[in-house]
Amino acid sequence: MSSEPDKLTAKERMAIPRQQMPQRDGIERSRDFKEVNLGLAEQVAIREAQRCLQCKNPKCVEGCPVGIDIPGFAKLIADGDFLAAAELVRKDNDLPAVTGRVCPQEIQCEACCIRCKSDTPVAVGWLERFVADYQMGQSKKTKPTAVKKTGKKVACIGSGPAGITCAGQLAKLGYDVTIFEAFHKAGGVLVYGIPEFRMPKKIVDAEIRNLKAQGVDIETNVIVGRTVTIPQLMNDEKFDAVFIAVGAGLPEFMNIPGENFKGIYSANEYLTRANLMEAYNPESDTPIIRGKRVCVIGGGNTAMDAVRTSKRLGADESIIVYRRSAKEMPARVEEVHHAEEETIRFEMLTAPVEVLGDKDGWVCGMRCIRMQLGEPDTSGRRRPVPIPGSEFVIDCDLVIVAIGIGANPLLTKTTPGLKLNKWGYIEADENLMTSIPGVFAGGDIVRGAATVILAMGDGKKAAQNIHKYLSR
Amino acid sequence: MFEIVNKETLGPNVTRYEIKAQRVAKSRLCGQFVIVRGLEHSERIPLTIADVNTETGTITLIVQTVGKSTLEMTTLQKGGYFADVAGPLGQPSHIAKYGTVAVIGGGLGTAVVYPQAVALRQAGNRIVSIIGARTKELVILEQLLGSVSDQLIVITDDGSSGKKGLVTDALRELTQSDNKVDAVYCAGPVIMMKAVAELTRPMNIPTIVSLNPVMVDGTGMCGGCRVTIDGKRKFACVDGPEFDGHKVDFNELMDRLKTYKGHEGKKYEEHKCKLLQGNK
Lengths: 472, 280
Ligand SMILES: Cc1cc2nc3c(=O)[nH]c(=O)nc-3n(C[C@H](O)[C@H](O)[C@H](O)COP(=O)(O)OP(=O)(O)OC[C@H]3O[C@@H](n4cnc5c(N)ncnc54)[C@H](O)[C@@H]3O)c2cc1C
Ligand SMILES: Cc1cc2nc3c(=O)[nH]c(=O)nc-3n(C[C@H](O)[C@H](O)[C@H](O)COP(=O)(O)OP(=O)(O)OC[C@H]3O[C@@H](n4cnc5c(N)ncnc54)[C@H](O)[C@@H]3O)c2cc1C
Ligand code: FES
Fold this sequence. Notes:
By secondary structure, chain A is α/β, with parallel strands linked by helices. Chain A has 19 helices and 16 strands. In chain A, strands 3-2-1-4-16 form a five-stranded parallel β-sheet. Chain A has a five-stranded parallel β-sheet with strand order 6-14-7-8-9.
């Protein structure tokens, strides 16, 4: 480790170009599930960190939903003290190896970087990932510090980023925390949704082990609302507070003819089979349809993950069908870029109107219509309107619908007194408390489909407020 | 990990497992199911909860060996463990007092209707059970279902056990006898449930069928179990598995169940070979 303190002038810093993230060749990687980005080498990370101008009034920190001290940790990297940098990041972010990989940095911290004015921003995400991976690679494990027990019990429902963060924070404060997870494996979208090539499972597993080492209990196979209800948890099992972090988890379909032919998946089903059930592994018992020509409908991260997975499962051609233009796609810029490198075809300004099936009931194509952009809608994006007479057919043998998710009613319906908004998401006040005293909620089930970092932010805020609530 | 406290062979291809699953046992209502993985690498498969014992915190599953997951499960022994048991899932059975209820089980559907027969009888109904199968070896749960029925009819395609014919023949005969049938509960191959529903539709006999689409999570999260009921999309794992048989699009379900035919057959054959070799 170099321990030369970093003493560059602003001019020298400005002269350093943005470093490159080493990545695997697009064609080669599109045939397997190993990670795409390889991570920065130490010297490259130091070089990149030296690009930070150490602003007195850093805008990047304002752009970070959890307010990480970005110049602070960049400085520590530049000085070669990677472990201290990791510790500094972890003060505000419990899952830096995750967010370093999946945060939409280009609209958060990096978008606010002062260097954007004349140049490219500091690669905050890559640096975050670098320190987190570096810390994980050290054999010296940070021992959980012994904490004084409060004697109070908190239940976190769901083990996605919101639940994990809340549980970790509460354990540090001395609470007995149990996470209840519906699936047989903890991690939420990080294990069932986001594929291995973008979010290696060993990273999530390590975080889950960390959590257990802190004393958090994880009970899998518990579907709250069915296996046990929130009133039962509070009244019979004496949990003093509950944090609901069950994610959104209700697949949307297109509601067009032909949607129930064989060979049409929701992205949730396709990705769950591929990731959680490891269907990409020929040894796995869980089957998955391996299309040769695959159409994925949508333009978000989920659509990108599905389309790139289909390529890896052997498709000759994998196509994104999106009704707006490239500019409106909500996916992370890096994922779109990676998809392009992996020869994914993009059919922009195109909407499906019917799924076509063959005589055996298998998908054989999709009738689509071209769109043009009209007036902005409520989301501020220009509304796509169909161009009359522009219908055409795309041949395909697998269709994956990734047009969004809604609020799964399974838990909310079985919790009397829990106030929901008109879309079925849980209403929470500024302290994230719901209409039921002692019951808090956060992450996608409150916000609608959002991001990992916002879910984590909620987890942390809920932990602080649960602590306040239980210390009254 | 869920301990197997009892295991019993009920027939050539039918095994009864009693499993420790405290939370499931406590919350389960008749008609609900669990999603299980026998082993760590197994597929998640749905199985009806045949019975529970709330005192010992155990649930009973009756499983017919039809493919790899159910075959592999048979290698687990008393004292061993199921990797995962999640539930209870689905809506509870609609149990009411009708009068005489025909409870029809075809093949492994017999395991699904057994708990319904129990609950319907407790509700004061007269139970006529009909077990249908291709041939004698495939008739399961005859004794168990018989023990909770006022009348039991076995009917096989080839007449090797009971009467010769299809369950619809038995049901038609029953409706034409002096015994009025006030409701039908039915589970089994889709083609059979369809035939039963077609038979009872003109007679206006309420007919509840238990659908068996492929499932993954069982919580309404994937949509793989979608079925069309009265023209509307429903998720069988949360809205079902029981539906009004006169409203189900059976043809679509039958077709969707063929999705993994090739894959399943292959896994089963591969695995059967391995297991048989291992036993030598
Ligand atoms: C394919 C995909 C790709 C994505 N890519 C990105 C990305 O690149 N960057 C980004 O920032 N965001 C991304 N997102 C969004 C992000 O993953 C979510 O915003 C985030 O995971 C929400 O976290 P959460 O903790 O609220 O819920 P989740 O991560 O959804 O976790 C909820 C957990 O609760 C469990 N659960 C549900 N119901 C119950 C119940 N009744 N009882 C017990 N447990 C229950 C679920 O099984 C699940 O494990 C992506 C989402 C998807 C689907
Ligand atoms: C709500 C519900 C409750 C069920 N309850 C029971 C039960 O109590 N006892 C029981 O033995 N089985 C029950 N089943 C069926 C059971 O889930 C399947 O037999 C099992 O998934 C087969 O797994 P496998 O890997 O052994 O066979 P596979 O290799 O998956 O399939 C082998 C054969 O079984 C057929 N098959 C696959 N899945 C199903 C299915 N869901 N329903 C019917 N046939 C199927 C396949 O088409 C194939 O021909 C239930 C199914 C559902 C949906
Ligand atoms: S099994 Fe996934 S929604 Fe029903």
